Amino acid sequence: MDPNPGRVTPLEAGGPNAIAVSNGIVGDEWTLWIVQQAMTEGLTQFGEWLGAGPISTAVLTARLNRLVQADVLQHGLNDKGRKDYRLTRRGRQMWPILLSMWAWEQRWVPGENLPEMRHSKCGEVFSPLLCCEACDEVTEAKDVRGRFGPSGGWERSIPTGVTRRRAHSGARPTELVPQTMALIGNRWSTALVGAAFLGATRFGEFEQRMGAPPTVVADRLRTFCDIGVLVATPNPQRPVYHLTEKGRSFFPVVATVVEWGHRWFQAPEGPALRLTHTGCGRAFHPRLRCGECSDRLRGTSVQVVRGHDERASAG
Length: 315
Known about the structure:
Layout: E1 9-10, H1 18-26, H2 29-40, H3 46-52, H4 57-69, E2 73-77, E3 83-87, H5 89-92, H6 95-108, E4 116-119, E5 128-132, E6 144-148, H7 154-157, H8 178-184, H9 187-197, H10 203-210, H11 214-226, E7 230-232, E8 241-243, H12 245-248, H13 251-264, E9 265-266, E10 273-277, E11 286-290, E12 302-306, E13 309-313
């Protein structure tokens, strides 16, 4: 039983806000893999994670400690007296993030061996639909307007660089999301994604909002164009960058990360970002629906399907 069913983490006034903290957690491949294995495979023991993928003892130790500090995992003793790690309520509520990442990669990144998702209520393999909690309408990036809240601002929203690195190609997690990590697995990449969704289109706008050196901005823009998330106008002197359909389709990942961060990491000044659904005019809070039966999804109703094998629910 989770001893802290609703505890939030207060943040320091003037420090990193909910966007920075939440992206600092989900933007690390091994951290996500540990959570995914706990959620869908039921792993709880240190040795189980070591045996499940090419993770080193040192990396696993560091990530488990960090997840405990973030109250995503809690450690204790099982009925055999052995130390184990179990997801807290905060950890279990990361399932919309993982589901949105998997769905985006399945649609846009061919060749990745990701599991399918089955909705236990209707029995169908599905892709999730993003909807507005207030009006229940299916929602795309163009339907949402965002502005910084009391604890917002670019400087406070950029994740710190600690442990935010991608795994080397010879030792990367299985069943995870390489292009997602290209977008949020680096502090400057995360900042560029946020700038693009908040309307930046020119090099100078990205540079100003990100607060990054010009060489870093140029490198990230080139990477985003290479993977098809941004497209630049042909003029090499003053190009204008726009999100492609692939880039706009990444919005459910952004929205679920922001929602999770605001729920569990709260700054005393108030939220970091205010989102408004233009359709109903109310505050936008994302919810996921089944693309087959249109019912709202719950973590306990999402089954991981690998071939003919059906594993545990997502949350």
